[in-house]
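Design request, tokens follow.
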């Protein structure tokens, strides 16, 4: 290819703008991460068995405490007596949430470790797309884990899912991704400034998991943690996701969950995006993109 032809291609690349261009860039980032992960067989094996490791300890503990698949105490708190389905569906979302928080939150740090972050920062795409591309990958990655765990729960443990609730449950996840992206932007800010900020991220993710009703209802939490739980997008995501998969379109809490997620979407994504832009600009001004 001649230099003139190469120059024309580069000019076209730099002139690309708009949603479609950013979507292509995000997709390229997601595909690149898949290629890296699939290059390591042990990583693939861990991905397959991880969903079962999340669920089996809760299954053993629940069976030991109740002696059956029904719990009267859980029914008094939530109106649901089937603790097996309650926990199976709740923990299925754990892997997806952790994949988003850790995988996307440390995406730029991984690029920094391999020496490609500065190059990516000079490409003709929005800075936020770097994080959205990683989110797209981890959504696919974690989503497959959810499918594996729910499939095993149905086939092996006899958990029943309402097929009419599958599409609404996916819509709930779609709403939650927007709010979660705000949290992810905050995590990225911590990682960019603190470098080895895994301690802070561990604390933040632990708090979010603690107050989310994945394996127990928020009614059993201390009052102060119940307030924190209401302000967390994970709470409403898990409640809506589980409600639709158990009750289908008859889920009574749909309006509350959707309204709460929409409100949190607006708050979290605006605050997270503003924090990310300010932090990214500050880090570049200090010349700290390549610093370890």
């Amino acid at each position: 290819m001649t230099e003139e032809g190469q120059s024309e291609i580069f000019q076209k690349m730099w002139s690309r703008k708009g949603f479609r261009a950013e979507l292509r860039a995000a997709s390229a980032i997601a595909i690149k991460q898949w290629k890296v992960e699939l290059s390591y067989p042990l990583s693939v094996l861990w991905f397959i068995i991880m969903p079962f490791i999340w669920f089996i300890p809760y299954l053993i503990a629940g069976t030991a405490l109740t002696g059956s698949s029904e719990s009267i105490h859980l029914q008094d708190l939530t109106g649901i007596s089937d603790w097996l389905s309650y926990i199976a569906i709740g923990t299925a979302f754990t892997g997806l949430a952790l994949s988003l928080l850790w995988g996307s939150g440390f995406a730029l740090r991984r690029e920094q470790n391999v020496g490609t972050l500065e190059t990516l920062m000079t490409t003709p795409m929005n800075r936020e797309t770097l994080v959205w591309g990683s989110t797209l990958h981890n959504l696919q990655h974690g989503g497959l884990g959810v499918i594996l765990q729910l499939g095993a729960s149905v086939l092996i443990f006899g958990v029943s899912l309402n097929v009419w609730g599958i599409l609404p449950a996916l819509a709930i996840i779609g709403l939650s991704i927007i709010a979660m992206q705000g949290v992810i932007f905050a995590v990225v800010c911590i990682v960019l400034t603190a470098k080895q900020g895994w301690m802070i991220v561990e604390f933040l993710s632990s708090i979010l998991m603690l107050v989310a009703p994945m394996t127990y209802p928020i009614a059993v939490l201390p009052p102060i943690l119940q307030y924190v739980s209401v302000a967390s997008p994970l709470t409403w995501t898990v409640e809506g996701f589980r409600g639709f998969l158990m009750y289908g379109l008859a889920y009574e809490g749909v309006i509350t969950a959707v309204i709460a997620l929409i409100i949190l979407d607006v708050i979290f994504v605006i605050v997270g995006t503003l924090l990310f832009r300010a932090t990214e600009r500050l880090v570049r001004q200090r010349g700290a993109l390549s610093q370890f």
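Comment from the thread starter after seeing the answer: thanks! The chain has a mean pLDDT of 79.
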